[in-house]
């Protein structure tokens, strides 16, 4: 009986170790990259944004603001859906029912500028 309880407690502790969110190296890198991107805030034309339409260089437009989401592409819960409008306007897709409220706060870290008027 004592052994069964000890095994159960050990199982719970090991499970918690893997389930409790921790700051990963990727998350830390994204925070650093977000801070670096904010330093280059600017105004961009649609032609400039269109050049950033790849998995390894992905910018999107949401409500006339520009977001460099390159470092987030691999983490995107919707997989490659984030690439559908890479280099162009993603406003309609971004405001779809698939995004939880947290997505609106998360994207702010990736803002690098605004669309040229």
From TrEMBL:
One of its GO terms (molecular function) is heme binding. Residues 1-25 form the signal peptide. The keyword Heme applies. Keywords: Heme, Iron, Metal-binding, Signal. Coiled coil: none annotated. SMART domains: Cyt-b5. Residues 41-116 form the Cytochrome b5 heme-binding domain. SUPFAM superfamilies: Cytochrome b5-like heme/steroid binding domain (SSF55856). GO terms for cellular component: membrane. Gene3D superfamilies: Cytochrome b5-like heme/steroid binding domain. Transmembrane segments: none annotated. The keyword Metal-binding applies. It holds the Pfam family Cyt-b5. Belongs to the cytochrome b5 family. This is Cytochrome b5 heme-binding domain-containing protein. It comes from Linum tenue.
């Amino acid at each position: 009986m004592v052994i069964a309880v000890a095994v159960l407690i050990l199982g719970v502790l090991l499970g918690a170790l893997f389930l409790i969110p921790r700051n990963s190296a990727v998350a830390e890198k994204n925070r650093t990259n977000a801070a670096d991107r904010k330093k280059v805030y600017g105004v961009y034309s649609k032609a400039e944004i269109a050049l950033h339409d790849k998995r390894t260089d992905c910018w999107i437009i949401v409500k006339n603001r520009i977001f460099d989401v390159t470092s987030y592409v691999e983490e995107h819960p919707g997989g490659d859906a984030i690439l559908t409008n890479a280099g162009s306007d993603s406003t309609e897709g971004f405001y779809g029912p698939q995004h939880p409220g947290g997505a609106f706060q998360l994207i702010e870290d990736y803002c690098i500028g605004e669309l040229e008027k």
